[in-house]
Amino acid sequence: MEFILFWFQIVMAFCFNVPLIVNILSGRTDGLNLATFAIFSFYFIIGFSLALGAFREYPSALRKQTLIVFGVHIGMVLLDFGAGLSAIAWQKSDSIFTAFVFLMTLITVFSYRGFKDPFARGWVSVWCKAFPQLWLAFTMLSNSSEESGISGISIAAGHMTATPRLFQVYLSGRNEGWDRPTSGLIIGEISNVVTWWVVTILWFYLKFNSVQG
Predict the structure, then answer these.
(1) CA 13, CA 168: separation in Å to the nearest integer?
(2) Taking the mean position of all CA atoms in its chain, how far away is CA 72?
(3) Domain boundaries of the chain, sorted by first residue
């Protein structure tokens, strides 16, 4: 089961990102912004560091697979960002949003007296994933169109990467212990799944409205 779960996530990572990159390169970028990709990359880097910490605590095959999954996502989101550099203009709203995430990160680091604590990194991953996805939903709503850079395939694949990854982290904690890196990791993963559902519901709402119109 763990083997299937691992490869399913790898395939879905490509199913999510490849259509997204194609849309960006084709000029379908409504609802997308560079800040989201930049901050997403930091989210996956944090996740990778937490997965690495968990692997060091308990070097199992399951935790090694989680580490690889985060590594793949880092590569894919950097490709997204690279594609967007020439197709998506950095806007004032990107700067404001990035500054907000940076401020929340500073508050978290100050509260935990550093960035080493896995819970500090876990909460920073929330700011770097949940907030961008909520911002994405807001941007889509502002454009009042589901015809954005996010395709239906990417919406579905987003669930098929996020939910199995959350389940994999949960299995790791349940079977191998809830050490601090694993506990910190699941904080960000829960926020990821919940806020992607917000994006999904809004995407379907806008699609339904466009059909009715």
Answers:
(1) 15
(2) 12
(3) 2-212
Interacting residues of 114 by C-beta distance below 8 A, sequence separation 6+: 120
Amino acid residing at 127 = W
Are 66 and 54 in contact, with CB atoms under 8 Å apart? yes
- Computed over every residue of the chain, the mean pLDDT equals 89
How far apart CA 15 and CA 162 sit, in angstroms, is 13
Give me the residue label for tokens 């004032």: 92
**Could you give the 3-state DSSP secondary structure of residue 117?**
coil
Tokens 């809830």 — which residue?
A: 178
In eight-state DSSP terms, residue 115 is S
For residue 147, pLDDT over 80 is answered with no
CA distance 184 to 9: 21
DSSP 79-119: HHHHHHHTTS---HHHHHHHHHHHHHHHHHHHHTTSS-SHH
Reported confidence tier of residue 212, pLDDT bands at 50, 70, 90: low
**Total residues belonging to the chain:** 213
Residue type (1 letter), 61: A
With CA atoms as reference, report the closest residue to 23 among 67, 88, 93, 76: 88
Tokens of 27: 């000029």
